[in-house]
Each structure stands twice: as C-alpha cells, then as structure tokens.
Fold this sequence. Notes:
This protein is an alpha/beta fold. Helices cover 26% and strands 18% of the residues.
Amino acid sequence: MSQRIAVDIAVIGASLGGTLAAWTACQRGHRVYLCNAFEWLGGQMTAQGVPPDEHHRIEHGGASASYLAFREAVREHYRSQPDFVDHSVLTEGCNPGDGWVSRLCFEPAWAAQWFETQLAPYLQSGHLTLHRRTEIVSASRQGRSITSVTVEDAIGERFEIDAPYYLDATDTGELIRAAGLPYRLGKESRAEWDEPLAPPLADPLDQQPVTWVLAVRRMARPQPVSPTPPRYAFWKSYVLPHYGYRQFSDAIPGQGVAALHLPFFAPSSDPQDKALDLWRYRRVIASHMSQTPRDEVSLINWAQNDYGLHPLLDGPLLSSSDVELAARELSLCWLHWLQTEAPRNDGMDGTVGYPELQPATDILGTADGLAQQVYVRESRRIVGLDTLTQGMVAATPGEPVQPLNLANAVGVAWYNMDIHPTCVSGHGLNAHVRPFTLPLGALVPRDCDNLIPACKNISVTHLVNACTRVHPVEWLVGEVAALLASHCLQHAASPSQVYADPQATQSLQKLLSSRGIPIAWDAQVLATPT
C-alpha cells in the first residue's frame, strides 16, 4: 500500500528547473513535495556535470536576479579560498576553471551543496518533503486534471502524491508521458511551423544525442591505464555519418558537414595562450588559478563522447536505460583512446596516448569519475497554448539585433540554436538567434489544467529547444512554473484562465517582476560591449 502525501505543489524531478521550482514555491510559503532520481539536486548544473552554457551578455544581465546572484555566489566562494587567485584569461569575469566555452566553469559539487543550503530551512520547517533516489511510476488523470502521482524509492516503497498542481521537472518529460498527455519529441516537419531549417518530414526519433560526462584529471606523470572497455574496437573505428571523420579524433562538427580540428591541449604551456583546445573547453580546475600547484581537471563533454546511435526516448530498439549504459561505455572508451592512442601534440613526435589522464573520482560524487546522470539535451515537450518556433527567434543576417519582446512574456532568453548531430539524420546545426522572451503559453498545456512544465519540456519546437535547454533558461522555467502555480492557487484560477485573461497575465507578470525576473530585454544590456 502506498503512503499518501498531500501538498500544495508537487515537483516531480529535481532537475535544475525542478530544484528552482521547489525553492521558489517554498519561498512563497507553500507546502512542497520534491523527488529526485539521483543524489545531487540540480540536474545539468550538478548531477549531469555540465558548467553553464550562457549567452554572451550574461555578465551584464539578461537573466533572472536569482540566477545572477548564484553566479556571484560561485565567484565569491572561490575568491574566499585562501589559495585561489583570479588569473582568468579565456573569458571575461572571474572564471574559476578558466574554461573557454563558459564564463563560469566551476566544480559541480559546490553547486550541489549550494542548492542543499537554500532548501535546508524548508526541510527543517516541514514546508518541503524531499525524496531522493525516487522516480515516478504512474499518474492518474480525470479529464483535464491529474488527480495523483505515484512515485517509488530505491527500496521499493511507494508514495501517492496529491496536489492541486504538479510540475513536471524531469529531464525527459516523464510526468507528461505518464499522464497520457500529448507531447512533441524530436523533429517537427518543415510544413508544421514553416521553419526553414526543419526537415521535410517529422521524425520523433531524430533527437539530440546524450552525453555521459566524465571528470578527468591531468596528472604530472603517466599513470596505469585501465583495461580496454567493451565496444572499444567499434568506437575507435566509428565514422560519424555525413561528416566522414572518425569520432575518436581531434575533429568536431563544423558548419554544414565540415569538420573543425582542435588540439587536445594548447600548443603552449603559457596560461596566457588563448588558442582554443579541447582540454580547456570545460576545465573546472586550472593550475594557474591557484597559488599552490594543482593537477588540472576537465569535464569531458565533447563531441567525441556524444552518443547518437540511438535516441534516448521512445526508441524502438533500445530502452532509455540501455541508451544510458551505451553512453557510459562510450565515455569510458573515449578516455581509453585518449590514454593509449591519441596523437600527442606536445612536441613528443611519433608518440601516442596521454596516460597521465585519469578519472577524477572526487569531482562528481561518484567512485568512477562519471557523472551521476546522463546529460540530456532534449525532452518530451508539452503541446502548449503557445509554441516558440524558429521564425520567432531567427536573427536576420546583416541587420541590427532586434529582440523578440512578447506581450505575454514570462522571462528573457538567448542562446545559439545549438544542435549536435542527431540520432537519425545525423545533422547538426549552430545558428544565430536574436534575444527573445518566453511566452506564457509555452508553459500552459493545451489539454491539462494542473500540470506545468518546469524543465526542458516547455512548448517549443525541436529547433528552439536547442536555444532553451541551457542553464539560465531552465533555471527561469523552474522559477516561472512555481510562481505560476502559486499565482493560480492564490487567485483560484487555472493556468489556461490566466493565459486567456490579459489582466490576469499582467498580474502574473507583476509577480515575476517583483521577484527579479525581467519580462522584456533591456536595451542597455544589449548595447553593452562584450
């Protein structure tokens, strides 16, 4: 028999958006339930091991106040360490790992602890019930309402969660699926939304690849190499479709089907060298950022360990757990290749392998150096009252940037349309977009009155998901989802009723603004040089 838990807002999944949703709802005084399939809260920021992907004006704004405060808290933590020195070179601002893909490369464990600290008062007061290693099993729905959700923990105990509002904050849209609601997945057809970059035919299996991030430490001397992983022979010879190069190489996808080649390490040992390399892509511990020499650590989330052979969700051949296992194997194979067969570019001509690269077992909360959770780029997405499409966010080449400021906006967002080679067609893409806002209807399902998406599962197309899947936007979605649920509870109105009433929408927007969530782009932020 299941134990019953009744709350005001149930957050299913402690992704980055889910963690923010639970924290925000607790701040509003609600009783909240939160479950997490993993140990660390925070999804892609923590358990998935991915430093934040952000737009290039982030140092000046263009995100919610709480996100900007978190960024400053990260920096303040590092600045307070007696051994730390800020010698950031590759990006603007204090960048603890001095990586070049993000202006804020830091150790995920610190963020995980930060989230715990924010939620601790609500756990102690009883406002928040948190179940770790707990996943959704089923959902009951009558008409347009979810009536209960059943979850199960690691020892098989089940809990029935009753709440007026349920937030799907899983990285894969599990509550949407369990409730039997319609959803979008993979690529829509060009005709459906008149998106020029969409394919002629829709394909829900043509999803973005997943990546199992691996923390790697560069030791001062060569170390013993682990045994050859399973499937190593396959992966070392695998050729990426369309692009025509071996995945295990120094090549990454470029424009069209071209390849870019980056050295594994910077040609020079000078920290001031700004030449791009793979090692510093997502480096989180940099030797020159410490007064005492330290071995460097990088989080390996590169094109070379993207798993694109099978889609993660709803695939006909492999289950999601099978795909996750295959992604883990790929990352271990990639490390083995780096240790044993990668051509060295450090002046040791004719030699291969970097046996000094070893799993960093103290970085991601695991004994093997692998992240706790696979990195998910694409989720099942609700069919919402609004859908954000390529035509709405597309930038016009050669013309001044004009942001998309919508009348019913609930927050600002901006990131390139970054699509890794997908699982069926193998096509990748990196296209510029203009600064845009999220419409309220992207968070309001067409067919359900008490489910709100709180992660990567909002109503956007496959193409636009590539812009909204990143950290500041998922953070925003989690905040807005909780505030929308809170507003609906306060005013006894459903999300669709708020959406349909301009005055109610404006009332919600005032609430968002009072919480430091901008609902339009600030022209000064966009005009600030970077």
